[in-house]
Structures are given as structure tokens and as C-alpha cells.
Predict the structure.
Amino acid sequence: MTRQHSLFDKLISNADQALRTLVPQSSTAERDNPASTLSSSDLSEDQRSHIAGLMRINHTGEVCAQALYQGQALTARLPTVKNEMEQAAQEEVDHLAWCEDRLQQLDSHTSVLNPLFYASSFLIGAAAGALGDKWSLGFVAATEQQVCKHLEEHLEQIPDSDQQSRAILEQMLIDEKAHGEKAMQGGGKAFSGPAKQLMSAASKVMTRSTYRI
């Protein structure tokens, strides 16, 4: 017999996931790091600093993704949608761990603003889930489009010599595209232009603030 979890159980589970996301070195990837077999390259100080800033943005993006998926899973109505959200969140853990690994290799750090972005993203995710599953899935698809755009821009900025960072971002791009496509195939409602513009503006706040902080 499957146990029905109470709201309190769900909140405790989400609190545990929040700590695993926000506490450094708490995330464990299920898949091997795409960069694990690649040798490091000589980078100038300016290159190292810039790449670290980009990887910090991507790490915070994954923190937000964790929070969004957890918030949506909390309020999702259909069990299938809830399971999809939880599965996507688990796959994003790999990205979280890979980005943190790369930041450590670059002698850099994750953003101190991560708790703020996690909390705000969780609330947004819960609100999206409460609106209905088709809106929740549509929100996932629209979010993943934004993430893919950032990843593609970052790949253009990272030098070819930095194969480690490129390998991580390339695999992340593959996964994020798949998440977005799966959300739409699951019945997600396409977002309008103004809604996407609002999401883009919010995304810029995150990227500009976490590049250095």
C-alpha cells in the first residue's frame, strides 16, 4: 500500500532538498561529469575570471530550477505531472554538481545570493503549479527556453581550449532542451510573448547579479 504523504511531510522533504541544493558540496550527481576525462587547459586570469562568472550564473540557474520544480511538484494536481517534476529536478542535480565542480577547479565560488533566488523561485513554481498542470508544464517549457538561450550564449564566449567547461555546458544544453520538449508534449500551454519578456527581464536580474557575487 502506497503511503499518502501529508502537507507536513512534503514541506519537510522540500526543506531537506533546499539544504541539499544550497549547502556547498551537498549535491551528488548520478551521472559522470562530462568533463571528468578531459585535461585542464592553460587559461589567462581574465579568461578564468570570466568563465567562473559564467559557470556561477549557470550554477545559480540550476538552483532556481531545483526550486521551481520542487515548488511545482508541491502543488501539481496530476500524479504524472508531479512525477515528471520530481524526475526533472533529479536530473538537474547533475548540472548543479557539475557546475560546482568546475567552479572549484577555477578556484571560484558559488553565488551568495543563491538562498534568495531559491526562495523566490520556489514560490513562483508553487504558484505556477497551483494555476493548473498545463500552465505549470508551459512554465517549464518557457523556462527551459530561457536556460537554453543562456547556455548557447555562454558556449560562444568560452574559448575552445576550455574543453571542460564546454563539455559540461553542452550536456546541460541537451538535457534542458529535452526537458522543455517533454513539458510541451505532456500538455504544456505555450506562453505569450509578453509573459516570455517578463521572464527574460527577471532572468537578466539573476545573471547580472550572480556573475560576480
